[in-house]
Specification:
This protein is mainly α. α4 packs antiparallel against α8. The protein starts with a helix and ends with a helix. The mean pLDDT is 89.
């Protein structure tokens, strides 16, 4: 893939993946064939901002963890009412990073 496409994709991913994954994803994209480009672009990435909003309003029910893809954690939050509220407050600070981490893992699995 040419460097202009790689740069465009990395700009679009900014804020959706942790910064430490940018270099590895750049290398993977540069070595990617053009016919596999659409698979990468079709990846269902979750928005960290949406995860935060869900956490603020529906975090007690684990909806934020279900959205990110942590089904087990979502069920546990649902059954414990967000750890009686404590877990919900902690997730207000952690959920954006969890969404970014899940996005990076999903992109690395594509390659």
């Amino acid at each position: 893939m040419d460097s202009n496409k790689v740069s465009t994709i990395l700009v679009s991913l900014q804020g959706k993946i942790p910064a430490e994954y940018s270099f590895a994803i750049r290398q993977k994209l540069e070595s990617l064939d053009d016919d596999r480009e659409f698979v990468f672009l079709a990846a269902d990435l979750k928005s960290p901002l949406v995860a935060l909003v869900l956490s603020l309003f529906l975090g007690v029910y684990g909806i934020d963890r279900f959205y990110v893809g942590d089904t087990t954690m979502g069920v546990l939050k649902l059954l414990t009412c967000g750890g009686m509220g404590i877990w919900t407050v902690i997730d207000w600070f952690l959920i954006m990073d969890a969404a970014k981490q899940k996005n990076a893992e999903k992109l690395m699995q594509i390659f």
